[in-house]
Specification:
heterodimer, A: about 325 residues, alpha+beta, Rossmann fold, OB fold (Dihydrolipoamide Acetyltransferase, E2P), 6-stranded mixed sheet, globular, B: about 280 residues, mainly alpha, MetI-like fold
């Protein structure tokens, strides 16, 4: 069990409005990711759901129950923090068991649950250690274990992978994905990393400046971005935006085309241009062009290609994959 | 000159300066200690000399321990100092936690108000304090001293501790709240252990002026039963004759407890730094 309804959540610090009316429905067992640039209010929203901040107005319901006046410990949630936030004076085992102990759970039950969680995260050899004696990855696993032990209705993750190095990040990401499959729990996850968002989420919530830009599955956001912001935020390298009038198209203000939806040829094509820079990534080759028609254009080619700066090339966009945006930056469907 | 060669020269100068400062700072202590072990005539004839078998004398210590109630004075000083430090640390840390952790109307103003005492010496209020103590019937009690010293120590304690508490990870406190710890538990079990080095600093800064103070014991608690060590040592200083042996011996003895307390706190200072909480 674990559903969440947010209704017109507003949060202001003094005169500074951080959340401007958030409506959101999360179903039981969903993995929802809040993504957006820094300062967009995603962490604040998570803290409001956790009860660490009070919303200025609006209603929060977990499993249908109004939570506005419920303290964090009684909301049936567990949270994993970016900085791990382990209790430095407690062993791994006590760190994981503290929440249950505070709630008055009997000792046998705590031990079973801690054992189960530590087994799941392969933390058994470290149970007697203190956080200072663990590596970053191990500390984050303990923090995740602390959340699992509580058997919450709602898991909240606040940028849990940001402090880990790249290899560890991929590994922990897989672990979290596996955990979600096994526990079938509702998870809400905040990140500014769109790769994490695309790979983990059932549903992505794109936030910008305290408001929701779009809610959808990763592929919906990729294929049908609702506006220029979402189109630019999802996908890497970023989508190319070209003023429509330069291409002689009417009825739209901006045309968007993803770098992977442009073909390059040395002989012929729609837009003639000159190569400025090439990035060889092995699996991909990213080519930056300066064309008369579009200005700077990023093209992503699969596999290895022998383009070099100053080469003259022709680019042709895939007509079916063009995105059209109106004067208000909204997508034209 | 290359950097590698100039480094030892610079280090030597730095050490020279530090050694010079140490000598200046320790000289009065040295003089007091040395002369407390000499006979009266030796103190005056050769104040700088170390005690030799012919000038060595324990007459000062004998006078101090036989005359007056020095053990009692020590006890008074210890009670006042330890109780004041404890209260300053407890209330100072609590106020600092409230100021750094909670957003409420007038937070900044309250912080400034509490820090005001750093700039205004408490002795300016002596007359009012005395009147208050008389009215409350607290004159000639250790309580009066403890109250005054607690008030005197709080501003600096709050100032230092609130700065330190701002550095304690918010996530840690949030994690505690989600795990159902009360605000008191978060304060005592999560935050206090992490600011222990700052607490030790505050304790040292609070302790020394209290132990050495002559002003308030003289005014608020001059009675025989409540005399502190510094006040007790005054009885050997007369208008016409001063018993230097006794004065120097009393002062030498008075150094000891402060040193013990200092060693305890400085241990904490070092130990506090080595605990790893968050990355």
């Amino acid at each position: 069990m674990g559903s969440l309804q947010l209704k017109s959540i507003r949060k202001a610090f003094g005169s500074n409005e951080v959340l401007k009316g958030i409506d959101l429905e999360v179903k039981d067992g969903e993995f929802v990711i809040f993504v957006g640039p820094s300062g967009c209010g995603k962490s604040t929203l998570l803290r409001v759901i956790a009860g660490l901040e009070d919303a200025t107005s609006g209603s929060i319901r977990i499993d249908g129950q109004e939570m506005a006046t419920t303290p964090p410990a009684k909301r049936g949630i567990a949270m994993v923090f970016q900085s791990y936030a382990l209790y430095p004076h407690l062993t791994v085992k006590d760190n994981m068991g503290l929440g249950l102990k505070q709630a008055g759970t009997e000792k046998g039950e705590i031990d079973t649950r801690v054992a189960k969680a530590s087994g799941m995260l392969s933390l058994d050899p470290y149970l007697a250690r203190r956080p200072a004696e663990l590596s970053g990855g191990q500390r984050q696993r303990v923090a995740i274990g602390r959340a699992i032990v509580r058997e919450p209705k709602l898991f909240l993750f606040d940028e849990p992978l940001s402090n880990l190095d790249a290899a560890l990040r991929v590994q922990t990401r897989l672990e979290i994905a596996g955990l979600h499959r096994r526990l079938k729990a509702t998870m809400i996850y905040v990140t500014h990393d769109q790769v994490e968002a695309m790979t983990l989420a059932d549903k992505i919530v794109v936030l910008n400046a305290g408001a929701i830009e779009q809610i959808g599955s990763p592929m919906e956001l990729y294929n049908k971005p609702a506006n220029v912001f979402v189109a630019g935020f999802i996908g890497s390298p970023q989508m190319n935006f070209i003023p429509a009038e330069k291409l002689g198209q009417s009825g739209a203000k901006t045309i968007g085309v993803r770098p992977e939806h442009v073909a390059l040829s040395r002989e012929s094509g729609d837009w003639k241009g000159k190569v400025i820079h090439v990035e060889h990534l092995g699996a991909d080759t990213i080519v930056y062009l300066e064309t008369e028609a579009t200005g700077l254009l990023t093209v992503r080619l699969f596999g290895e290609h022998a383009y070099a700066p100053d080469d003259v090339v022709f680019a042709t966009p895939d007509r079916a994959s063009l995105h059209r945006f109106d004067a208000n930056d909204r997508a034209i469907v | 000159m290359s950097k590698a060669r100039s480094a030892p020269v610079r280090a030597a100068f730095i050490h020279l300066a530090l050694i010079a400062y140490t000598l200046v700072a320790l000289f009065p202590v040295f003089l007091t200690l040395v002369n407390s072990f000499k006979s009266r005539s030796a103190i005056f004839s050769q104040p700088m000399a170390l005690p030799t078998p012919s000038t060595f004398s324990l007459i000062g210590y004998q006078t101090v321990l036989s005359q007056g109630n020095f053990v009692g004075y020590f006890q008074n000083s210890l009670i006042v100092t330890v109780a004041s430090i404890a209260l300053v640390l407890l209330f100072g840390a609590m106020a600092a936690f409230a100021l750094s952790e909670y957003r409420f109307r007038g937070n900044t103003l309250m912080g400034l108000y509490l820090a005001l005492g750093i700039m205004i010496p408490i002795r300016l209020g002596t007359v009012a304090i005395l009147q208050g103590m008389v009215a409350a019937g607290l004159v000639n009690t250790l309580t009066s001293l403890i109250l005054v010293y607690t008030a005197q120590g709080l501003p600096l304690a709050i100032f230092i501790l609130s700065e330190f508490m701002r550095t304690v990870s918010d996530d840690l406190k949030s994690a505690g709240r989600i795990d159902g710890l009360s605000e008191y538990a978060i304060f005592f079990r999560l935050v206090l252990p992490l600011v222990r080095p700052a607490m030790a600093t505050v304790a040292v800064f609070t302790m020394i002026p209290i132990w050495n103070d002559l002003w308030f014991p003289l005014i608020l608690a001059p009675g025989e039963a409540t005399k502190t060590v510094t006040l007790g040592a005054q009885m050997f200083i007369g208008q016409f004759v001063t018993n230097w042996n006794a004065v120097l011996s009393a002062l030498s003895l008075a150094i000891l407890p402060v040193m013990v307390l200092y060693v305890i706190f400085s241990r904490q200072l070092i130990r506090g730094i080595t605990s790893g909480a968050v990355k």
